[in-house]
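Worked example 3 (structure in, sequence out).
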């Protein structure tokens, strides 16, 4: 490719292998293979971004981004296992089994060139596909700690922006003017919070100030991108810290306004949400799976219950029905900001609507709950409510115990023997103990 050159370029500080702690053992074999092959073919090949930062912090990076002066087409010509993707950024994906190495061609900084870069009215970048050199590419990156390049040619680190020092100081510093960089891409505010929570870094004061001016710009971000970011924020093992930081910087209210409103007014709800976040972090730490619908259900629980109570006061319907209808409406309002795929909203609605059924512990219908396809998630949700004292502990114990009982024991537990053949639903003493209504 032709190098456009950069008249205003600054020389990088090149830190030789002997003067830094980044070991190749921190990088995946596949990433190294891609780098070596590019290098052998005469291209520049660097690792860049989170993997270099995490390797410096000995955090064992899992995701590797390669930056090169080869164009996507030139990358494809080198690798059989390669696909070109993306519109906003054209990238090459090189696949090794289940691992994908992302290879990006250096790009010119958006503010250095006017052609082939699109902005919207607020200054957000919609498309930029102008290839450039490494000393142009660096200025497009968000934080200084994310702008370190590891050169496979001699294992040195190229630092244009003082990133090494900022990693050592544990500071998140935006490259360039924070106000402008957040206007260009408001998601950088969420990224600041995510990295602060994950790395235990502080956010640089001017960035914090700019965040406070621009929090409302999150509403311009496409709802699907915000959902992707939500997943990274809350499923990376630092959900509770992330939640606190998002609220501290006024970002949570932009993402989940109905939830924020209830959090401000109701300490019990806050207690429940916090318990769920801690539970999510524990699951991630233990290597267990997490589904976004669970935490979303937690976030919407009080807004949904309040709306359900209104629906019941307007029209005669069961609590279950009202919860299901209310979930539908709360989710519909939420979708405008953060679009949650149907594969999560449908099970979430079922999980919430099943909650009143745990209060019935006798009879055939109660026993049938065990076979419901959403029993497991709904049960976990109920147990969490019990943990924070919002469902009776006896109820939680009942449903925990019956799961391991034999069929005949279950019959006794659900008082099936007491009323052979009768259709009438048995009413447990426990039934009166409902979760507190708001
Ligand atoms: P992690 O992989 O831990 O989430 P990361 O820093 O690698 O963190 P990615 O989203 O994988 O984050 O992005 C890779 C690199 O691309 C970043 O380190 C940064 O240099 C650049 N980058 C990503 N998103 C943006 C953005 N919105 N604005 C500017 N640069 C970005
Ligand atoms: Mg990454």
């Amino acid at each position: 490719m032709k190098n456009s050159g950069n008249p205003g370029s600054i020389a990088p500080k090149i830190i030789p292998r002997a003067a830094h702690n980044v070991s190749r053992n921190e990088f995946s074999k596949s990433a190294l293979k891609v780098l070596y092959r590019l290098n052998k073919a005469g291209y520049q090949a660097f690792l860049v971004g989170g993997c270099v930062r995490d390797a410096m912090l000995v955090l064992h990076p899992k995701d590797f981004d390669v930056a090169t002066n080869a164009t996507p087409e030139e990358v494809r010509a080198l690798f059989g296992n390669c696909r070109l993707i993306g519109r906003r950024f054209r990238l090459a994906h090189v696949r090794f089994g289940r691992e994908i190495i992302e290879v990006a061609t250096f790009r010119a900084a958006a503010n250095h060139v006017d052609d082939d870069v699109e902005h919207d009215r607020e200054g957000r970048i919609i498309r930029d596909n102008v290839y450039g050199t490494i000393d142009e590419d660096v200025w497009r990156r968000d934080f200084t700690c994310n702008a370190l390049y590891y050169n496979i040619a001699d294992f040195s680190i190229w630092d244009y922006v003082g990133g090494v020092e900022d990693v050592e100081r544990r500071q998140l510093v935006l490259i360039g003017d924070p106000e402008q960089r957040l206007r260009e891409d408001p998601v950088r505010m969420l990224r600041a919070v995510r990295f602060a929570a994950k790395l235990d870094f502080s956010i640089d004061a001017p960035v914090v100030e700019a965040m406070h001016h621009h929090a409302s710009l999150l509403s311009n971000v496409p709802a699907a991108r915000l959902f992707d970011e939500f997943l990274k924020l809350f499923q990376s093992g630092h959900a509770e810290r992330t939640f606190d930081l998002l609220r501290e910087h006024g970002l949570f209210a932009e993402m989940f306004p109905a939830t924020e409103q209830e959090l401000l007014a109701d300490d019990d709800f806050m207690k429940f949400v916090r318990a769920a976040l801690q539970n999510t972090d524990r699951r991630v730490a233990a290597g267990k799976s997490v589904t976004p619908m669970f935490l979303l259900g937690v976030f919407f629980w009080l807004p949904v219950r309040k709306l359900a109570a209104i629906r019941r006061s307007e029209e005669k319907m069961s609590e279950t029905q009202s919860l299901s209808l209310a979930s539908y409406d709360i989710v519909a309002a939420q979708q405008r900001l953060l679009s949650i795929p149907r594969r999560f909203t449908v099970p979430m609605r079922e999980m919430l609507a099943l909650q009143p059924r745990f209060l019935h512990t006798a009879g055939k219908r109660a026993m049938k709950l065990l076979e419901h396809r959403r029993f497991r998630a709904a049960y976990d949700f109920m147990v969490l409510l019990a943990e924070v004292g919002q469902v009776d502990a006896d109820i939680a114990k009942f449903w925990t115990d019956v799961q391991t009982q034999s069929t005949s024991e279950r019959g006794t537990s659900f008082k099936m023997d007491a009323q052979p053949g009768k259709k009438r639903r048995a009413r447990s003493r426990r039934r009166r103990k409902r979760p507190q209504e708001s």
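Notes: The pocket of adenosine-5'-triphosphate (ligand 1) is lined by residues 49-50, 63, 65, 140-142, 146-147, 185, 187-188 (CB under 6 Å). The CA atoms of residues 150 and 157 lie 5 Å apart.
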